[in-house]
């Protein structure tokens, strides 16, 4: 269903990464992890990619307004979005997608994500906190550096408050010697350090297309059944 929403606020949540908060239409419902298609009316800049993009809803369903988060690039759409004035209206169509948390809380979940792929999982985590769900979740979250990592503090806080949540951030290009956590890309060895029974969880993948493809192939090589892998790619990444 198509709606018109207004820009309420925007703020930086990591280096080069912006959160945009939009009004929520009356009666609009979605499940944590779903996405919408967003279109800018009369964009300030134009290119061959057009004025329509798909973005996950980053806010949990219980939130009053709707959040989207994106890296600000040099594309016409991203520049137009970044320069929208407060109160500007854009078109939203949706929700779409099946990257939603399974219902059986006795079956654990593993989230594999990188960069701006955190957005559907951040919505899920907010929903889990609100509903006090008991799913055991292990999140692997890869970024280049600490400064480029959106929602790091919020995820650490959620881990401290929820014994069923294990947060595994990893950095591929972090120069800070004080970081004593994981480094490098998510790989089989890293997953096995935190997941005892590889065949038990449902695996969820979101992130840049190259990452999602490599994660899928890795899990298949580890013996994970394809029915236990949920993945969606979004052009907005």
From TrEMBL:
The name this protein goes by in its record: Oxidoreductase
Cofactors named for this entry: FAD
Entries under Gene3D superfamilies matching the protein: Nucleotide-binding domain of ferredoxin-NADP reductase (FNR) module, Translation factors
Domain (FAD-binding FR-type): residue spans on this chain: 1-102
InterPro entries: FAD-bd_FR_type (IPR017927), FNR_nucleotide-bd (IPR039261), MRET (IPR050415), OxRdtase_FAD/NAD-bd (IPR001433), Riboflavin_synthase-like_b-brl (IPR017938)
Superkingdom of origin organism: Bacteria
PANTHER family: 1,2-PHENYLACETYL-COA EPOXIDASE, SUBUNIT E (PTHR47354:SF8), NADH OXIDOREDUCTASE HCR (PTHR47354)
GO molecular function: 2 iron, 2 sulfur cluster binding; flavin adenine dinucleotide binding; metal ion binding; oxidoreductase activity
Pfam families: NAD_binding_1
Keywords carried by this UniProt record: 2Fe-2S, FAD, Flavoprotein, Iron, Iron-sulfur, Metal-binding, Oxidoreductase
SUPFAM superfamilies, alphabetized: Ferredoxin reductase-like, C-terminal NADP-linked domain, Riboflavin synthase domain-like
